[in-house]
Known about the structure:
The complex is a heterodimer of chains A (390) and B (451).
Chain A: H1 2-24, E1 28-37, E2 43-52, E3 55-60, E4 70-81, E5 83-88, H2 122-126, E6 132-137, E7 145-153, H3 159-162, E8 163-173, H4 188-204, H5 212-222, E9 227-231, H6 234-247, E10 251-255, H7 263-268, E11 273-275, H8 284-287, H9 289-295, E12 300-301, H10 314-323, H11 328-335, H12 337-343, E13 360-363, E14 374-379, E15 382-386
Parallel strand pairs in A: 1-4, 5-6, 8-9, 9-10, 10-11, 11-12
Antiparallel strand pairs in A: 1-2, 2-3, 4-13, 6-7, 7-8, 13-14, 14-15
Chain B: H1 3-14, H2 21-40, E1 45-52, E2 60-68, E3 71-76, E4 86-97, E5 99-104, H3 135-140, E6 144-149, E7 157-160, E8 162-165, H4 172-175, E9 176-178, E10 183-186, H5 197-244, H6 263-272, E11 278-282, H7 285-298, E12 302-306, H8 314-319, E13 323-326, H9 348-354, E14 359-361, H10 374-383, H11 388-393, H12 397-402, E15 420-423, E16 434-439, E17 442-446
Helix pairs in contact in B: 1-2, 5-6, 5-7
Amino acid sequence: MKKIVLLSILILLSIPCCMVKAADAPENLAIRAGRIWTVTDGIITDGVIIIKNGKIQAVRKKPDVPAEIEVLDFSDKDVMPGLIDAHCHIGLSLDIYSEIDETVLAVTPDMQIIDAFNPLADDVKKVLRSGVTTVLLAPGNKNPIGGQTAVVKLFGKKTKDRVLKRAAGVKFSLRDEALMPDRRPTSRAGLLALIREELNNVKAYKEDKPDLRMEVLKSVVDANFPVYISTYTVDEITSAVALVDEYNLNAVLIGAEQGDEIADLIAGRNIPVIYSPLLLFSRDKDLKRVVNMADGGIKVAFSSSAPETSLSDLRTSAITAVKYGLDKEVALKSLTINAAQILGVSKRVGSIQRGKDADLVILNGDPLQPTSTVEMVIINGDIVYQRQKI
Amino acid sequence: MNPVKIEVLINFMENPVVMGHKNIILISSMLLLFTFTSAFGDQGIAIRAGHILTISDNPIENGIILIKGGKIEALGQNVVLPEDVRLIDANDKFVIPGLIDAQSRLFVMDSELDESRTIAPELNILDAIDPFIKEYREVLAQGVTAVCVAPGSHGLIGGRSAVLKLNGSKNIDRMVLKADATVKAAVGMSTGNTSSSLARLEHYSSIREALIATKVYMQTKEKADREMAEYNRKKAEYEKKDSGKETEKKEKPKRPARFRSSPASDVLAQVLRKEIPLQVEAHRVTDILNVLRLADEFGFTLILDKCTEGYLIADEIARRKASVIVGPVSTSFVDMPRLEYRNHDMSNASILSKNGIKTALGVSGRDGASSKFITLAAAMAAANGMDKDAALRAITLTPAEMFGVADRIGSLQVGKDADLVILNGHPLDTQTRVEMVLIEGKVVFERKSQQ
Lengths: 390, 451
């Protein structure tokens, strides 16, 4: 009996303690920085960012911070918005034995990649050091009409903090990988015929007989639901552009490696491109293609296609592009705000602006120098990575 | 020799169709001129540079490098220029030694890397070199003047590697700076993304067996050599006596059985005599430890290649004084996922070098052209804790030392080959461009102004 009383007292005591502690946790945080790369509003030197409830409350030059706010001092460091990897496959328990595509069927628009995402997977935690805070998760390239992509953050206490878009668009693949010997389509021409057939079926679709797949395709044709079309060669890109014209699609190209050959065609329709990791290439001609595309007026974002390459090399892609002639400002935007706009999440992420999510990366130098290191990563105001000194 | 002429020559060689007849005549005369100037006109070149990163010694500000006969004749702030010297003005620029990719596949055809024999030290990568590939010019344009190419990772002992210069020669003998630079081996490689402990043990024990067999071979050979010498001596004696006193009958010495020499064992014998280092590709801790055990047992000079998990056992590697070629710095250079890279860490090179281990960096890319990323590899190592100077050394002097060519290349020192790179900024900066590359005093690359 005595024990129980003691226990109750202890519990009673601990409740207010916990509450005090929760209230103490820094809802407000200020970051003093040598340089703030706002992306949308230039570089602010010796500035401060005030974070409240996970959002950016203020960005300003004069570093006067109210006394009650905890300050992280990075006066000799650089702060930029969290990087956005515009195409990858992490957190999908994708080890060397598993698949991310439903390959028995060719058309699976009802499949949602978010259902396979494990935010606590090892590969998600491990890549926080890369400075990437937001990613587009996508199915693979084996379905002409594949599943739906999602936009998620690599950390978030609650689902709503973590998932920016459960369904960001439908993935199409015009690549050779979508051709299978044992199911339709088996040819490139057949692949396009199949996609057209499916999109045409939307007209005859009656909602009184619900069909999940048709519902999704209907929103693609009728409601501007985005399509992410994976392509590589000039002919695949040309086919993708033809589909966009025929069905008035709200399209984003993934890959589009040879897109610079027909940059005018893509730029003329304002189709953005999520480019493949640059370290997959080695010839000068290929390394310059993304530069040519950006110069040709195409809005470009970078991607890691992880696990194909490492998320740590998202920044390396931009750095390599700069080495091959890409304008530094464009490179920085491609890593952040351009990617956010392409993925339709620029209201929340992609730049350091008042009202946006406090997703920040602190580096020990210019973000576009390969010698700069990520020192700290903040997502929704929470410190999720801090570099250990060796 | 005017670099502009070289540029024209190169353009001609790469786009022969677009050139008119007049130009061809011009080019022919230039070719003649080229032959003359290179053969007779070695009047010397001097480079006046803002920052000379010698690598071996302290950097020199506002110095001069004097080149004669393809070698660095003088270097410093107070070099007296001969009158007829051709002066290259790089007042506001950086000069560094030519870069070396220690893990290159340049000039090597893909198919040549997949040898099927397991213990084949007698194979020589030089027999698989294609000097006609064009990618080398892109690699050269990034400041790489030498590469080490080794047989692939599939054979346990794949063969002998070589250090090649990117001097544009189509004569393989002229490209070779050093043949038999190392004997390349690999242990614990996964196949089809799976690996069993049994297979890894087999790799280790097969190499061990080959080395034990080599020891026996060496003893047998030594014995046979002794017997043969003895026979030769007796034979000479017998023949001498034979011609002298005919009366005294003496037994004719019996010729010992002929020793059958083996090219493979001869190469491994050189390894055991420490004449050629053994370069072993090993990724995982268990495999690296196995290789270190082999080094303990047989006492060869060890270069650990790739050494992906080396940072976890840096003390063990340091204790054996083994050197390491870390690569790739980033897993993006290899087809992923692969078991060998499961614990890949960007700070591997940094940790190893901070433990006093001689650490070189290699690109270890997908193909030959990837060697152009060598400065990126160094910059990424620097970003992950390696000292910037150490990172530069890891792509110049350190690999030169490892491959036994530091008397020729790897640093800017009097007497060394004039293989150097002129850049418009620090070599590890993103926006730095290579302006000019010289190999043995000849301009082999010059950047066009708009590039």
